[in-house]
Amino acid sequence: MNNKPDDRSDNVKKIQNSIDRTIRNMELAEEMIAVTSDPGVKQQLIDKNSRRKHALDGLRREIKDESDFLRKKS
After folding, report:
1. In a domain, 2, yes or no
2. Of 2, 45, 63, 69, which has the fewest beta carbons less than 10 angstroms from its beta carbon?
């Protein structure tokens, strides 16, 4: 079995795409929160956005790590 070399060249782009999608989903959830009258749905969306905020923190750390790695490699 041949091991593939570690190709991290596009990781920053992939992580940035994840960040962009997560932010967009948070914005859409905020719009839904503003118009829904169902308190259960509202709370679910609030909880989901809270988890997304935590995920964004991790993604931002990850993108910094990848950028640092690529800079050191160059």
Report:
1. no
2. 2
Q: Which residues are within 8 A (CB) of 36 and not within 5 positions of it... i.e. 6 or more apart? A: 42, 45
Q: What is the pLDDT of residue 45?
A: 98
> Quick one: average pLDDT of 20-26?
98
Nearest to 26 by CA among 52, 44, 47: 52
Q: What is the pLDDT at residue 1?
A: 61
pLDDT score, position 35: 98
- Cα dist from 27 to 4, 46, 58, whole Å: 38, 11, 19
Say if CB 22 and CB 52 are below 8 A apart.
Answer: yes
Number of domains in the chain: 1
Decide: pTM greater than 0.85: no
Of the candidates 30, 14, 12, 20, the one whose C-alpha atom is nearest the C-alpha of residue 69 is 12
In a domain, 3, yes or no: no
